[in-house]
Amino acid sequence: LLVLLILIHYRKCISMNESIPTDGVYMSDSNTNVKDAPAFHENPYCKALNNAKDIQFDHADVEGNAQNGPVVRLSFASLFDALGACLKDESSVLLLYSLVHGNCDFQEYVLVRTDLDTLLMPILEMLYNASRKTSNQIYMLLIILLILSQDSTFNASVHKLVLPSVPWYQERLMHQTSLGSLMVVVLIRTIKYNLSKLRDVYLHTNCLAILANMGPHAHRLSAYASQRLVSLFDMLSRKYAKLAELKNDKALKVMSDQMEADIISDDTSTELHIYTDFLRIVLEIINAILTYALPRNPEVVYAIL
């Protein structure tokens, strides 16, 4: 697996004296000047993985798609089950990310599976134990969930899949809760952990983006998940109010060192702006549930009231 990951992620930079091919070039950053941006040779292993087809896929369809060169064929069912069994290993998470991000056929296969808990439960358990993970590991897990949550079928499916129990969740007994409700609880827990420990803005935004994608499709959100969502808004609004009060406090301007006061004021303004964005997204999530899924979510209404 490690050798495979090195092969598919390795990029050889094109030297200055080489001519840059018209296609198959990966530009590192679209914001940089094209002339200054480094160019990379096409990676055949990455291309092979991204074009891999399910072994149950019709041969005639594969041949009709005019693929360049032979197509790698493998069992998506076996791969799905193997990944579900091995996701506690970081290298397996990276392979899943590579497949979901690069291979459209595998992503579609995952989205139509009815047993999404095979992949999602190990991911949610790792997020639940975020304190034992690095920010990079957490980020990778969230990106996988973010990619999947962009699909409306996925969002509908997770809310309808009921879990008999969640043995690794310690704070509360989780009996007959939906996978969607568990996702909401674990994501909000990750947000609160991030705010207190990691303080990574992008990680936080990814969590909220997943919740925003799920919002309009929420179906019978549990009482606990609804309460956690409202408590997240309460926590963010308290922090926002505290920062706003600090910014308006004139005592900052009466400090002996005016430069130090300016630095503190700038820091407060930046943090206030960040919390304003966070609060806006949480309000959008609640609004989406109330607008598109109100009859199906009485617990959310009760929690808000």
Low-pLDDT parts are 22-32
Query: Span between N and C termini?
Result: 51 Å
The strands making up the biggest β-sheet line up spatially as: 1-2
Number of strands: 4
The radius of gyration is: 23 Å
Order of helical and strand elements: HHEHEHHHHHHEEHHHHH
Percentage beta strand: under 5%
What share of the residues lie within helices?
Answer: 55-70%
Q: What is the average per-residue confidence, as pLDDT, rounded to a whole number?
A: 85
Largest beta-sheet characterization: 2 strands, parallel
Shape: globular
Helix count, DSSP H or I runs of 4 or more residues: 14
> Strand pairing plus helix content: what structural class?
mainly alpha
Mind explaining what this structure looks like?
The chain has helices at residues 2-9, 44-50, 59-64, 76-86, 90-102, 104-112, 117-128, 135-149, 152-160, 179-198, 201-214, 223-248, 258-292, 298-304, and strands at residues 53-54, 73-74, 162-165, 175-178. Residues 22-32 have low confidence and may be disordered. The chain is mainly alpha-helical and 305 residues long. Helix 5 packs across helix 6. Strand 1 (53-54), helix 3 and strand 2 (73-74) form a beta-alpha-beta unit. The chain is globular and about 65 Å long. The protein has a two-stranded parallel sheet. One of its GO terms (biological process) is Golgi organization. Keywords: Lipoprotein, Myristate, Signal. Belongs to the dymeclin family.
